[in-house]
Amino acid sequence: MNMQTHDYSNIRVVIVDGMLFWRDLIRNFLNELGIRHIRCVSSAKKSWTTIREFQPHVVICDWKLPDGSGLELLRLIRHADESPNRFLNVMMVTAYNEQHRVHAALRAGVNTYITKPTSAQAFMMKFATSLADERPFEIVGDYFGPPRNHAFLLQ
Questions:
Q1: Is residue 117 reached through a cis peptide bond, with omega within 30 degrees of 0 on the bond before it?
Q2: Pairing of strands 37-41, 58-61
Q3: Is residue 120 within 8 Å of 24, Cβ to Cβ?
Q4: 50 closest CA partner among 92, 17, 94, 96
Q5: What does the pLDDT read at residue 2?
Q6: What is the pLDDT of residue 4?
Q7: Are 86 and 79 in contact (CB under 8 A)?
Q8: Which CATH fold would you assign to the domain 9-132?
């Protein structure tokens, strides 16, 4: 996929990570893609307010946050009555690579799961692939999210 041919200039992204280093690094990766509409927050509570006010196209969150988890945030996005967009593209970028966590995120409806550390090239490819995925969401039992056979989005 040639990312240079895509215009991401109107994409709005919220980055949720408790560590300033990772917020800055991911922001730099996004800037390389031409994304300028970025909000960075350090906690789950701040992220929920930011998501509702900023109306992003993508949320990039860590698993562990100072006041909750990215998994809880993902569940809010997918299931809360006050969710501004249940179809929001959610990417989890985390140091946790245990299979049970990956599967929990997939069961909760994550679009993409990336393990830290990651390179700029790997991150940008996953980001572009995730945005290009136009498959409709599915509802199966209590599951709501992207088709669950999207394991190719894992790193």
A1: yes
A2: unpaired
A3: no
A4: 17
A5: 45
A6: 55
A7: yes
A8: Rossmann fold (3.40.50)
The Cβ of residue 131 has, within 10 Å, a number of other Cβ atoms equal to 19
State both tokens at 97: 């690579």
* pTM: predicted TM-score of the whole model, two decimal places: 0.90
User: Which phi and psi (to 5°) does residue 134 adopt?
Assistant: -110, 15
Q: How many helices (H) does the chain have, and how many strands (E)?
A: 5, 9
**In the numeric block, which tokens belong to residue 17?**
């990570």
Chain segment 6-37, per-residue pLDDT in tens? 899 999 999 999 999 999 999 999 999 999 99
143 to each of 17, 104, 120, how far by Cα in Å? 25, 12, 31
**Residues of the chain falling short of pLDDT 70:** 1-5, 149-155
What is the residue whose two structure tokens read 């394991």? 151
